[in-house]
Every structure is written in structure tokens, then in C-alpha cells.
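@channel sequence for tomorrow's demo:
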Amino acid sequence: MTPPSRKDATTPTSAGGRHATSADDGLTALFRELERARATREELSRALWAMSPAERVAAMWRQELALSQLREWSTHAPHEVPRAGIVGGEYMWIAMLTPEWLGE
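C-alpha cells (generated this afternoon):
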């Protein structure tokens, strides 16, 4: 009896007609995760811009904004983002993490 050929009908293949591998599975999982991350960023962006400027500032002080939201806010509405009097006038959300601000 001869062993089944590598192109046996029971062997899964990818869309390109080649044999599916664990690398294909890993790549598929990676693309799914990237899609989930993109959707999450879009949701965070919508939530950010649904807030008023005062609500964004209050959320920043409560440390409720994600890093992606803070960066987006600083890029698109820099005039709204509080700045620190120390650390060279840096955005406050950055200055709040410095040893100077933390009293270290």
C-alpha cells in the first residue's frame, strides 16, 4: 500500500491552493487580532470625540483616557490639552508621569 499523496483531498489547503500550516493559522490569528485592535481604536476615538472639551480634561485628570486617546486628542486639538508649568510646558498627561510631578 502506498502512502497518501501530499495533495490528498483530506489535507486542508489555504485560499492560494497551498497546504495550510500552523504558520497560516498564526497569520490568520494575527490578522484577526489586528482587526480587533483597529475596531477598539475606532471605538475609543468615537468615545473621545463624543465628550465635550471639559469632559476630556476631566477624564484626563481622572486618568480614564487610553494612551491612544491622549495622543489623538493632543494631535487634533492641542489647544484643549492642559500643559504643565514644569518640564518645559509638556502636555500634562505626559508631565503627570515624570519624577518632578510625582515628587520623586
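heads up for whoever presents: The chain has five helices and no strands.
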